[in-house]
Amino acid sequence: MPFFLFLVIFVGTPLAELYLLIEVGSVIGAFPTIALALFTAALGGLLVRTQGFEVLFRIQSQVAGGEVPAVEMLEGALLLLVGFALLLPGFVTDAIGFLLLIPALRRWLIVRWLKSRGNLHPSPGAPEGSARSRPPGVIEGEYRRDD
To answer: What does the alpha-carbon distance between residue 122 and residue 132 come to, in Å, rounded to a whole number?
Structure first.
């Protein structure tokens, strides 16, 4: 599986990008295609920058509130990859990058990935309060110390 993923990312994606650039260039011309690629890179960079600052402010407010900003940190890392994808010339990476600029989609993918790995558990003060909402190995109870 990792070898197939390697082939798709490092061989298939550039080939698809090249094919699409040639096809678009043959329809609208070479210079408009280059201008479109530069425009999507500039627009993507601007959008990534503004969303990056929003994520940074959310991280700062959560840290100030004593919370761990795990999902927001992953959002920041994903935005870094999105920015890289948008700077690459091509329409496939631009389409993926612009899709991942949708905050709800980005957060949903991160939460889904964390749940699939078993790393996302409800907080201890969760309203459910059932045994399923606690991480494994946690036993609730009270104690009293008699000295």
So the answer is: 9
